[in-house]
Amino acid sequence: MDYELLAELLFPQVTKTPADVEAEYPPRELPEGAKVTRFAPSPTGFVHFGGLFPATIAERLAHQSGGVFYLRIEDTDAKREVAGAAEGLIRTLARYGICFDEGAVIGPDGKITDKGNYGPYRQSRRASIYHVFAKQLVREGKAYPVFTTQEELDALNATDKKAEIKARDWENEQDFRREEQQKQREFSMEEVQAHLAAGHPFVLRLRADGDPEKKIPFTDLVRGKLEIPENDEDFVLLKSDGIPTYHFAHAVDDRLMGTTHVVRGEEWLPSVAKHLMLFRYLGFRLPKYMHISQIMRLDENGNKKKLSKRDMGANLDDYSRMGYAPACVCEYIMTLLNSNYEEWHAQNPEKPYTDFPFNIKKMSVSGCLFDFNKLNDVSKNVISRMSAEEVYAQASEWARANDPDFAALLDRDADYAKSIFAIGRGGKKPRKDLATWADAKGYMSFFYDELFTVEDAYDEKFEKSDIKAALSGFLSTYDPTDEMSVWFDKIKAVTERLGYASDMKLYKADPAAFRGNIADVSMFLRVAVTGRLNSPDLYAVMQILGAERVKARVGSMIDSL
RNA sequence: GGCCCCUUAGUCAAACGGUCAAGACGUCGCCCUCUCACGGCGAAGAUAUGGGUUCGAUUCCCGUAGGGGUCACCA
């Protein structure tokens, strides 16, 4: 077989050599140790929660080393592409602090465009580049065409690949594959010419020379030293539409774009043998690889399962809808990525997570279970550190998109809402009532007359006359301009007049000596004013509610007794 | 099924041959306290399993079991 001739027949339009192309992508001028990483999603839908892990790692690695982080759109499968997905991806990632130095960006017209000197950054636009390297491989006898008729192609497109794979008879798979591979490799030049003359499309396959009995040492930055069986599969390089598969595009793009560290999900680990072979055939230096464990969920049998597309919480945008602030999700992810993050953060409470020295060596190799408890805890801490101003801004933003009625209330009197958010905020021991913006409405509903209801009943052990007397006693001396201590002294006075204990220590020493205690009286008041048994500090609540509302609510409670 | 990866409490995880096997979340209890939240203190809770190697294995090796991934003209 004359490979030189074969290459000409298959790629007559290609005139450049690999060297020509490489000259167009000169090495980047970066400081020593700078890492070049990328996020390379295919635009088939939303950003997957699991995708945020490699994205965050790649971003941190690049930016904390003074390197470059870029976005490459892997749109090589036209069948699965979703219109507008790439734009959505970019917007969502930006909200989570994943910002790119170069790559695909949203242009002023709202459409995807390129920024940077190593593009195009959409693989669908790089066909001619891939063909240069494809031609070289054919020329060297390292790749060969397999022809298909249009009918066969249609049949291929019609099959449900997932179902097909599931129904596979694995016993015979290996032998079958090897036989097919042998047959296809042995086309004669005449056959090739006949197919080309007939206009039959072809795929380009790699001519694998590996022996799976032999193992190649391979170092993964996360997993350490591994041994990988050599690849013996003639996998597809170019599909019949001339667009590359992931493997080929990965090799060519990451070479030309100067990627130093490939960060990707562990589902790629079984493909590493292919990539080792391809890089060797192409004469490319291997980038460093990091295969990141998948985030898992629990299935109905209690087994861990990969968090898949349909699962609740798989879509990053779900978290926004649930009311989680992106900053909270990012911190949660940091706690999973590097277990010493929390310790660092405790020592540097004011610093943003981007100041944390992210360390590859501290990464875990086993897949972790998504834990809402932990997310909520992290989230409460993050929100408790925000100013009332910021809480108001973010809660409003969430409400506008997800709860218009609540948004209207927040909008109606911004200062009122902010003063509510300010209760117990700041200082060493801030309140931690909110994990999500969605929690805000329930937390503060009693501050708004249209949401105010008396939910909780008094304990039946109390005489209604006592309650009435306590409330009336409070009303008769209530002065909204009182200082906290004066206000509380008045409540003590009411308490004592009822024959209740105003000193909890005295009460605890001898409960039988009293009809009740000041906590009970506070509860009478609290239920009247807030409609519930639990609330933030009553004095602060009353200050914000104002004298009118306090009097009205206590009054109507007295009337209802 | 072949191949690959993984395995310390319910969850996330320290401990890179010698610790009484950290810590965080969750759970429970106590304290603080006008309730809640916060905070403080405390409790329960783990090295999957069987063999080696070693004076000594969570740690190293082999097997077993369990879990995960992958085997497309998808990424």
Structure in words:
- With 561 residues, the chain is an alpha/beta fold.
- Among the domains are: 60 residues, no CATH class; 97 residues, Arc Repressor Mutant, subunit A (Orthogonal Bundle).
- It is built from 25 helices and 13 strands.
- A four-stranded mixed β-sheet has the order 1-2-3-4. A three-stranded antiparallel β-sheet has the order 5-6-9. Strands 7-8 form a two-stranded antiparallel sheet.
- A hairpin with a 5-residue loop joins strand 3 and strand 4.
- The model has no long low-confidence stretch (mean pLDDT 92).
- The chain binds one RNA strand of 75 nucleotides through helix 6, helix 7, helix 8, strand 8 and strand 13.
Give the % helix. 40-55%
In what range is the share of β-strand residues?
A: 5-15%
Q: Over all CA atoms, what is the radius of gyration?
A: 33 Å
Instruction: Give, in spatial order, the strands making up the sheet with the most strands.
Output: 1-2-3-4
Structural class: alpha/beta
**pLDDT < 50 runs, ≥5 residues:** none
Q: Largest sheet, described in full?
A: 4 strands, mixed
**Under the CATH scheme, which class of one domain?**
Mainly Alpha
| Mean pLDDT, all residues | 92
Principal-axis shape? elongated
CATH topology of one domain: Arc Repressor Mutant, subunit A
For this entry, what is the oligomeric state of its chains? single chain
- Reported CATH architecture of one domain: Orthogonal Bundle
Number of strands: 13
